[in-house]
Amino acid sequence: MEPIENKNDNSDLPEEYVQGFAIFSGIKIDLSCRVLIPRPETEFWVTKAVDDLLNLKRRNLRILDIFSGSGCVGIAVAKSLPDARVDFGDIDPRSITQIKINIAANQIPQGFTNVYKSDIFNDIPPCLYDAILANPPYIDPARIAEVQDSVLDHEPHGALFSANGGLRIIEDFLKQAIKFLKPGGFIYLEFDALQMGAIEDLAEIGGYMSISFFKDQYGEWRFAKISK
Asked: I want to staple 86 with a disulfide (CB 3.0 to 4.6 A). Which of 78, 159, 162, 218 is the partner?
């Protein structure tokens, strides 16, 4: 398949890019680097993940926000769990810059975060996390016609599309993530509803103890909790 290229027409520039920020979990997230715009569906499951983390009743939790984009997921967690250590990982240099901007803008204390430019886990130092929160690229390129024009024209395609029916990056992620989880640790993973069966198989093959699927606020299967 030929690479998908962004267009240059700014006539349908998303409102979040025009104003330069989005609100996510009540937090102002800067988007000046034009990274992926945070979605309400993601905000929904992050709220659930935060509740799970609070219910652990542990101090000094260690959490990884991977495929971070703007850093909205990890920053929402850091604001809700101020004694947690939250690491961020993304392959896109724009995202690395954007994450650092948002960490500073939201006054996350120094020493409580690390930001890694990494292709999945390749350049993340060995560490065991209580939770890994993942919103990977998962759209099947064959379904490009279903994606809004404003998204195709302006948002980074590397944060949206993945080969093998949208599953290639998820497959690589699940193969590696189990090595970065503490016993009893868990993953929250966003996905497309058509991928449920394949993700369940990948979790079983990968040696995870359990997987549960959940719908978003719109009634669509949207995220999984996968436990080690």
From this structure: 78
Residue 57 has what pLDDT?
Answer: 81
Report the alpha-carbon distance of residue 195 to residue 222 in Å, rounded: 10
Phi, psi (rounded to 5 degrees) for 176: -95, -30
CATH of domain 15-227: 3.40.50.150
Dihedral sign of CA atoms 218, 173, 72, 152 in order: negative
Closest to 125 (Cα-Cα) out of 113, 116, 135, 112: 116
* CA distances from residue 23 to 58, 72, 75 in whole angstroms, order as listed: 28, 9, 12
Determine the Cα–Cα distance for residues 145 and 180; give it in Å rounded to an integer: 36
The whole-angstrom separation of Cα 137 and Cα 8 is 22
Q: pLDDT averaged over consecutive 10-residue blocks of the chain (228 residues)? A: 46 91 98 97 98 90 98 97 97 98 96 97 97 97 92 94 96 98 97 97 97 98 98
The overall longest dimension of the chain from CA atoms, in Å, is 50
Domain extents in the chain: 15-227
Helix (H) or strand (E) holding 150: helix 149-154
